[in-house]
Amino acid sequence: MYPTGEVLKDITWEVKHGDRIGLVGINGAGKSTQIKIIAGLEEASSGQVVRQGEPRIAYLQQEFDVDLKHTVREELFQAFNDASRVLSKLRLVEQAMESERAAKESDYLDHLIKELGILQVHFEAIHGYELEAQVEKILPKIGFSSKEADQLVGNYSGGWQMRIALGKILLRDPDLLLLDEPTNHLDLATIKWLEEYLLEQTAAMVIISHDRTFLDKICTQIVSTERGISRTYIGNYTSYHEQKIIEKEANQAAYDRQQKELASQQVYIDRFRASATRSTQAKSREKLLEKVEKIEAPMINENKPTFHFQPSPRSGKKVAIIDDLSHSYGDKILFLGANLEVDRGDRIAFIGPNGSGKSTLLRLIMGLENPDDGMAGLGEHNVIPGYFEQNQAEALDLKKIVIDTIFEVVPNWTQTQVRSLLGSFCFSNEAVFKEVGSLSGGEKARLALALMLVKPCNFIALDEPTNHLDIPSKEMLEDAIREYEGTALIVSHDRYFISRVANRIVELRDGELILYRGDYLYYQEKKAEEKAAAEESLRLAAREAKRLNKRDRERKRLAKKKGKN
Q: Which string of DSSP letters, residue by residue, matches 83-130?
């Protein structure tokens, strides 16, 4: 229970050994609250969490905790609290032994040697050296070489820091792993690594995620929270989604049947309530009607908000052009002679690892950055652009209230239209009257996206538009983009979203833009073919090298034999 009202009211589900449970529901449904209660960070207003056998619980929060000043190895060792403290003291004593004072004062050096011995015995007693071996063992599993483990955590990107945080909590050998939005801000390669890594773990897991492909790959059960009530579904996200459709159809049919029967009974009661011969029967039916357990009306559009782009004039055929583009940041070359033509109606998803230049490419096309060489820009004929960038929320007027922020752009809309739009982006009831400055970072990002999408435009460039959106809102945006008659360039790491909206894929690879003239499934098939061809090429090259080596050995043998003769 929160001051704003009851969040959870009938939550009952269990986690058994080996379970991998996906926790789903709209934003504000109480998913993170449930995980925090399991982790012991919050107390439930009523009910209880039964933890059998005092299980070890590890919690990877959205904002994971790593010390940027530690080396990777040092940060991983923080998993072992007692041993970490002893090791820190050991390092301080070792440093003191190398000091000028230790070199000059024998008594001080003797004191340090004695203290070092005591700490070493303590470290060994708590199996510190075995724990160091565990750190070395996990390094390659989370993608670090021994040399890379000596680098500072702060030298690595957010995706690599997530690996460190995950490795740190897995070193504690948890029985239950709680993950809150673990794929946020990760590139596709790191998400795939995370999937493979989690599938190798034996710990039970509870995962909050709006990444439907990730839920499909990992989860064996889905727990859905709606209206404060939980329900468990066996299978992955796709299975859950199919079960929900069947369930909703059945619930609607049952509700309609009951409403029809109730109406029929009410007609009879109203007709014969005053009848001399049938009033007793009518009253009897009325009493029975009062005792009937009413089927709750199915939720209308709660899980399926709708949105449509505003009508806009038709653009010319060439909407954006990239010609012999070269661009770099410092020593890092992003593009080197890259080329791409964007035609009207294209919905292109750009794919590449973090740092490959996807966001920069959108900024170059929109004219917000100037290329080092070549050109990138919009077409010349009637292109009306709209652009959403990840930090666009920073441009919002913090003193305005949410609903007025939208009204300022679409003054002719009714309040019902504006509130319906805001509801699609998870702003409902009194939330529409909040000051923008009081919103969370995620709420500001959603408001900025809504603000951009209501403006008429025939070309949109979207940089990570699904960040901070729940699954129903993602589906709403997917449907809107699929119906959109304009042109779209999209940067996203959400594979499900890409597969739903993109009709072209452009991969950023070695400074070039590689165009795949098909959707995400086509791209995956082509990548599999490329991988198979590369492996076959390597196999043939190895066979040829083996043949040449064998021929050289035979020549040497014959030459040696000839020399003897």
A: HHHHHHHHHHHHHHHTSHHHHH-HHHHHHHHHHHHHHHHHHHHTTHHH
Q: Which top CATH class is 318-518?
A: alpha beta
CB 481 within 8 A of CB 347: yes
CATH number belonging to domain 1-68+157-235: 3.40.50.300
How does strand 221-226 pair with strand 459-463?
unpaired
CA dist list (Å): 244 to 14, 23, 176, 212, 457: 20, 15, 27, 15, 35
- Of 231, 179, 167, nearest to 205 (Cα)? 179
Helix, strand, or coil (residue 440): coil
Q: What's the pLDDT tens digit per position in 396-455?
A: 899 999 999 999 989 989 998 899 888 888 888 888 999 999 887 778 888 988 898 888
For the residues of 333-358, what is the DSSP string, one character each?
EEEEEEEEEEETT-EEEEE--TTSSH
C-alpha distances in Å from residue 434, one per residue of 269, 404, 439, 447: 49, 10, 7, 12
Domain ranges for the chain, please list them.
1-68+157-235, 70-151, 239-291, 318-518
The verdict on pTM exceeding 0.70 is yes
User: How many Å apart are CA 416 and CA 304, to the nearest integer?
Assistant: 17
